[in-house]
Amino acid sequence: MNEIQFRIAGSGETVEATLEDGEAARAFGALVWMTLKLTDYNATEKISDLPRKLPTAGAREGFTPVAGDIAYYAPWGNLAVFYKEFPYSKGLVRLGRLKQIPDAFRGSDPVAVTIEAIQARRRRDP
């Protein structure tokens, strides 16, 4: 699994996330280092279009997201970051999970985020 960071512009928040080990998550991981404007959707999630569609072959038909889930909504081709739980949704592909919900996500205002890969930390042997 890969680790990424969401840096939230203007709020000084940085949140780490872990990506799943599926085809869509790997394709999303290859896109990291991008800046997106996340807008509020349904008082449940922040969404944004991605630069290109992600492959979904082999993914489940859908899932029931909970707060902290990062997903791809295949019918629209957009990123969805959930800050509240939501019922089962066909077409949602789980990409990963935030380690915590940023405070900036809790309001209805748009949020600018920069998503970047975290360099793997090497363990030091004594």
UniProtKB/TrEMBL annotation:
Transmembrane spans: none
Domain annotation Cyclophilin-like: ranges: 12-116
Matches recorded under Pfam families: Cyclophil_like2
InterPro entries in alphabetical order: Cyclophilin-like (IPR041183), Cyclophilin-like_dom_sf (IPR029000)
Name of this chain's protein: Cyclophilin-like domain-containing protein
Organism of origin: Hansschlegelia zhihuaiae
The organism's taxonomic lineage, starting at the top: Bacteria, Pseudomonadati, Pseudomonadota, Alphaproteobacteria, Hyphomicrobiales
